Amino acid sequence: MPSTRSIEVLATAADLFHAAAEEFVRAARTAIGAQGRFTAALSGGSTPKRLYSLLASNYADFVWNRVFLFFGDERHVPPTDADSNYRMVNESLLTKIAIPAENVFRVPAENPDAAAAAEDYESRLRRFFELRSGDPSGDRPGEFPRFDLILLGMGPDGHTASLFPDSPALDEQSRLVVANWVAKFNTHRITFSFPVLNRAAEVMFLASGADKAEMLHQVLETKPTPPLPSQRVQPSDGKLLWVLDEAAAAKLTR
Ligand code: 6PG
Predict the structure, then answer these.
(1) Which of 13, 50, 105, 139 is the most exposed place for a label (fewest CB within 10 A)?
(2) What's the pTM?
(3) What is the mean pLDDT of residues 15-41?
């Protein structure tokens, strides 16, 4: 599948989340039709919460038992913490749909050792996708998962997942999941690496609101050196879709 990038601009935030929900379900139906299951990695932050609520309210009777949900990144906090991406998804979606608990793979971020939590999550991914690990010498790199869909957001500094500018995980090429030290937050985040993001069949970015407009212009229309983290999401064999509302797209030259 040739890599494509498309930008969809909706009039309002409500329209954006409806379009995103339809795209999620379209991708799910296609994957389930083709391979009997749909694998998706969810994003955190505030933007996708309305998408998750809409999926719960408008698609409650979907075949959730064929859907397998992962997290593209997580804050280094327990699942009960107000900052937990898992908690946000659990409250807005998981508790409202009939998805089997064994179909939801959360990051074990309650582990005080962030690196161990990342390793644990990586081994869960390798087991689920039946992936060969790389050999210790590094001569033979391990295999990477191919998610049917990865949801992403973009931060005001151009970060995505928890791949922040000037952070160590930007250069990770063999691990699937790493603990990334984020100096400005003085904490670790647990995040997918770029190789995982760029092997997805589809990546869908959601960005809503005027506070995203300047950075969206930079990410989608400029070529800084080094590139911004959100610019480094280029699926090698998949679809890249940006779903925006008018306010977020206000500074794009169209
Ligand atoms: C997180 C996210 C992060 C998020 C952006 C945008 O854990 O915070 O995964 O990458 O998508 O920071 O956040 P907002 O949607 O809150 O603007």
Answers:
(1) 139
(2) 0.97
(3) 98
